[in-house]
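Quarterly update from the structural biology core.
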Amino acid sequence: MNKSQFPYFVDWAVTGKCNLSCRHCRGFPEGELSTERAKKLITEIAELEPSWVIIEGGEPLLREDIFELLEVMQRKQLEAHLITNGMLLSPQILTTLKQLGVRVMISIDGATPATYEAIRNGANFERVIQAARNCVGEGLLEAINFTLLKRNYTEIPAIFELAASIGVGKITFIGLKPCQNYAEELLTPEEYGETIKLVCEGAQKTGVEFFFDEPFFWATVKERGLPAQMPAVSTGIVTPSTTACIFGEYLFIEADGDVKPCSFAPMVLGNVNEKSLGEIWDEVSSSPFLSQLKDPKTRTGYCQSCQYLGDCKGCRSRTFVLTGDWFASDPVCPLSFKLVGKEEG
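Predicted structure, tokenized:
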């Protein structure tokens, strides 16, 4: 098997436990892998040679054996990136993470206490900002993660200013994916267009780099002539070799062992309690359906006439949840108005 046939990365929600109740939480299955199975899974992940591994939750620091597992990852020479809400990042934990060679991303979805604490119920704005500063001081913080919702996207200029004041060099903007309050919080195509403009302007003004985790981002940037560039260094979410949707080209592992082709896909490929991760990946690689889904030529609707289709493909998980069709056009693409007009003309 050559390198191109391996998953780009593996995203593992090690626990569903959490100390917060967030507006945009996608929810988690009950249960988590035993320490023994989790350690064996790390060996299976290493055999697939992903470029990196994302460790998340829930809140991953609530898993009792988390440092034991991270130590195994370090021994297996896996590059680990931990996504945390920051509430538990004590100086002692930061020291341990540094010893284990782990890079940290802290989720901060608002630039003001009111917005942040309304989105992340149970969190404390001042505490998370101090945790971020401490993390920067230890050289561990690679990015702030900012999930885009209707109630926070207007704070994009302010989150760039905040990042600059903390000393973090990158922000990862993550499009809202299917969750309980999805329809209420999902940006419209117009709002996505405005968001992309605000992000490009914020980066230019502050010098803070960013990664925009939406497949239509670069298409919109090119079409509208906006100033933007990829971060100089990976943030653990960035896939430098492609800007398109990578559904089925990486693996997401739920806390209970279910494996999915995307963190937000309503589709289970198998469970690591029943078969090895390598076996599941082999099935993914040979799946006619996933192969068809990865092919941009199978798209329907206005995507067919888009010159950027191969660079984008549209978010498959969101599209399926909103339309019930895996092959439909992405309903929140900022370029959809122009393309719909072309389609009708």
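Residues 341-345 have pLDDT under 50 and may be disordered.
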